UniProtKB/TrEMBL annotation:
Residues 7-61 form the DUF397 domain. This is DUF397 domain-containing protein. InterPro entries: DUF397. It holds the Pfam family DUF397. It comes from Micromonospora qiuiae.
Length: 64
């Protein structure tokens, strides 16, 4: 399990601006990018290696 205590969370630039359905990303930790649901900040977070995160973002951009 990754320690996310020092994570600085920010809302994703792709999150809807309707006040409730936001994804937050923390990319300030060495060797890990974390993603969580802003409605459940104490709930689980997905973690990625920076390389896997970059691949994920590239693949989602291809969908638009």
């Amino acid at each position: 399990m990754v320690d996310l205590t020092g994570a600085r969370w920010r809302k994703s630039t792709r999150s809807a601006g309707n006040g409730g359905e936001c994804v937050e990303v923390a990319d300030n930790l060495p060797g890990v990018v974390a993603v969580r649901d802003s409605k459940d900040p104490h709930g689980p977070a997905l973690t990625f290696t920076p390389t896997a995160w970059t691949s994920f973002i590239a693949a989602t951009r291809e969908l638009h």
